Amino acid sequence: MDDVTIYYYDGCPTCRSARSIIEGEGLKPRIIDYMEKERLTKSGLLELLKKVGMSARELLRKKAPIYDELVLDDPKWSDEQIVDLMLEHPELISRPIVITGKGTRLCRPAEVVKELL
Question: In terms of residue numbers, what domain contains 36?
Answer without folding.
Answer: 5-116
